[in-house]
Amino acid sequence: MSKTKSPAPRHSKPMPYPIAAPKPGRGAYPAEARAGMGAIPHPAGVAFRVWAPHAEAVAVTGTFNGWDKTAHPLTRENPEGYWYADVPGAKVGDQYRFHLTTPAGEFSRIDPHAREVTHSVGNAVVHDPDYDWEGDAFRMPAWNELVIYELHVGTFNDPDPTTDAPAKFRDVARRFDHLKKLGVNAIQVMPVAEFPGDRSWGYNPAHVFAVESAYGGPKAFKDFVKTAHRNGFAVILDVVYNHFGPGDLDLWRFDGWGENDGGGIYFYQDWRAETPWGHTRPDYGRGEVRQFIRDNAMMWLEDFHVDGLRMDMTLYIRSVRADGETSLPEGWSLIQWINHEIREKYPAKITIAEDLQDNEWLTKKPAEGGAGYSAQWDARFVHPVRAAIITPEDANRNMNALREAIQFKYNGDAFQRVIYTESHDEVANGKARVPQEIDGADPTGFWAQKRSTLGAALVFTAPGIPMLFQGQEFLEGEWFRDTVPVDWDKRAEFRGLVKLYRDLIGLRLNLMGQTQGLCGQHIQVTHVHDEMNMIAFRRWMEGGPGDDVMVVANFHREPREGYTIGFPATGAWKLLLNSDRTGYSELFTGYPSGDVVAEPGDYDGLPAKATLGIGPYSVLIFSQPKG
Length: 627
Fold this sequence. Notes:
Blueprint: E1 38-42, E2 45-51, E3 57-62, E4 75-76, E5 82-88, E6 95-102, E7 105-109, E8 124-125, E9 148-151, H1 153-156, H2 169-173, H3 176-182, E10 186-189, E11 193-194, E12 207-211, H4 217-230, E13 234-239, H5 287-302, E14 308-311, H6 315-318, H7 329-345, E15 350-353, E16 375-377, H8 379-390, H9 399-407, E17 417-419, H10 434-438, H11 446-461, E18 465-469, H12 489-493, H13 495-508, E19 522-529, E20 534-540, E21 549-554, E22 560-567, E23 571-578, E24 596-603, E25 606-614, E26 618-623
Parallel strand pairs: 9-10, 9-18, 10-13, 13-14, 14-15, 15-16, 16-17, 17-18
Antiparallel strand pairs: 1-2, 2-5, 3-6, 4-5, 6-7, 6-8, 11-12, 19-20, 20-21, 21-26, 22-25, 23-24, 23-26, 24-25
């Protein structure tokens, strides 16, 4: 499903601190009633609760009563419109639906809180809440040590591309050895909430509490998360709250009511319903809908043990349109509420906004008026860096724009941004994978290899949380489609490039104990030469041997010989990575860069300087050895 991006409003002052959404009908259940929404299994049967304020009568039908709409009526619990019944003998695995009698007619609906469905237009299934996590107590790495790998379940590792069926969670897990060797430690999964059909990007959720049946369903997702944790991976899940549907959407006029051709109780009934994906924006101002979205976010963290949420296009939660005049304060306060609760209950879990408007308020704390996200995808990195590596002519590369991209921070915190050159959005919707954009005629050739890896080197050396998109490490080409699987044959063909990515990740995570600075907050872009297409910068945490890192990048097709740059200290500086090594690709030039000795003398605003050589479209990474 394509997604539209537009300019957007920026907040110049704090937005409202979250007001906890009311819990209509949820705070004080009758003594004999069981707590919860949807299907609530217990030893003697299953209780059912649903919100349908405009219904005149509600019944539950299912395999336990022969789909008889008269067998098990629900009782209206309160004026807010919550209905409840306890059905003895119903059990886990039973299929069911709600039958609603309303002034607009009779309707059979899938439970909005269904944790499992047979498919998007099928039936709800009573899901077993009990799951043996076998002591799972995974704690994700500190955010300055995260390396994220974004993937799409249906195409990441398709065992049989000749069929219409997508890959499943278990197929992704079969490639965990590759990801472990690569060195990533967090997997960001594109949305897995049940969507229409079997193939989709996932950004068209039909049932937000259910896990996509074509991927294996909820138990398979729990198995996936547990296995990921055992292999050392955090799991970050993409969730979609800026719109629902628009297809196969039983939420639409759920209890028959609607105004102005609107979608009823779960949606705005006026112009605020408008989104780029249909008129299906949830009503963020209605307490029951706020609770519905909040409960969904917490479900993934608590019931599925995911380690973070990446919220899709938050711009369209906080505003109706990207025109600066249509803000939605109730949308802003909703995400404040969710993020505040996550920060309080689960401080080690991460929330990431895809907003792409360079808005520092997204990652300020809710108490300060901010939205409270841990980090946000950074448009100020990806667009200038992609431009610098895709632009055909060296003379047109903007090194000053690149400097700003490298050194930018939100609120003075390097790790409030996620940086990348490829994501599901950047490689589709009229755009392609970076190698394809660089050289469409030869996307595996010299230029594509050199400049795509040049961009990747900046991802792992600039301040921020680095992210790769599936197959990037072995030069996956063309553009992203939910019907075209990753070509794993390329892993062997481009094993040298895989090693380059592995080496970059190792340095980023300080695995050799010589590059602590790449985990640090500090950056100083010390050298920019626009005409020569050269840039150099220093990274450090506290500074000194084993910490200070110097990164030198050549964005020109010619090597640079006898090139002088400043260094933060005199003495020996060891070359830890030369991206032009022929061991990474037989097409590379193998320019003989090496260790340098920095001599005293002010240069580039630093107290020492050294002369070096660097190959075409290459990066050199130096550190000062310990001892």
